[in-house]
Amino acid sequence: MPAKKFDIIYADPPWDYNGKLQFDKSSKDVDNIDWSRKIFISSASFKYPTLKTNELMKLPVREIAKDDCLLFMWTTNPHLTQALELGQAWGFEYRTVAFIWDKMNHNPGQYTLSNCELCLVFKRGKIPRPRGARNVQQLTKAPRKKHSEKPIEVMQAIEKMFPSQERIELFARRKAKGWSVWGLDVFE
């Protein structure tokens, strides 16, 4: 982790699914799959190293957060409770759902078809000043790309809301102008 402190932390934790495989059929013909066969075709742990919640809690995120800081954290539906606990362990208070990403596809879930991910916002101290745009939409509709890659529109929305703040993306996959990055898979 960098020694610098930040106003905005944007994180997409590599949630562990206890070795269980997940469906990943974003590039498949959904209507022609025989769900009774229960064929699993992808797992996060096959794509990148994952961490259990207690391991994520040990990361020194509170040390890189300014006294007034916002944490935007992605969570999958099965990890919602753990995401709330993780934000608290990192020294933040849960505020609300900042963004809902409609992936524009349908993955099976335990109870309903899962096609959305949530980006929660947590606060430490006060909301960083100065504020930018306040008319940013919560719902983002964007098709899935690579496994676990989040829509760039969400980062752009955060930039509009907080254009002059020090920002970092944790578990980053690419460098972005105006952002510090930390992660195993960072590329240009």
UniProtKB/TrEMBL annotation:
Keywords: Methyltransferase, S-adenosyl-L-methionine, Transferase. It holds the Pfam family MT-A70. Gene3D superfamilies: Vaccinia Virus protein VP39. InterPro entries: DNA_methylase_N6_adenine_CS, MT-A70-like, SAM-dependent_MTases_sf. GO terms for biological process: methylation. One of its GO terms (molecular function) is nucleic acid binding. It comes from the Bacteria. Belongs to the MT-A70-like family. This is Transcriptional regulator. It comes from Candidatus Falkowbacteria bacterium RIFCSPLOWO2_02_FULL_45_15. The lineage of its organism: Bacteria, Candidatus Falkowiibacteriota.
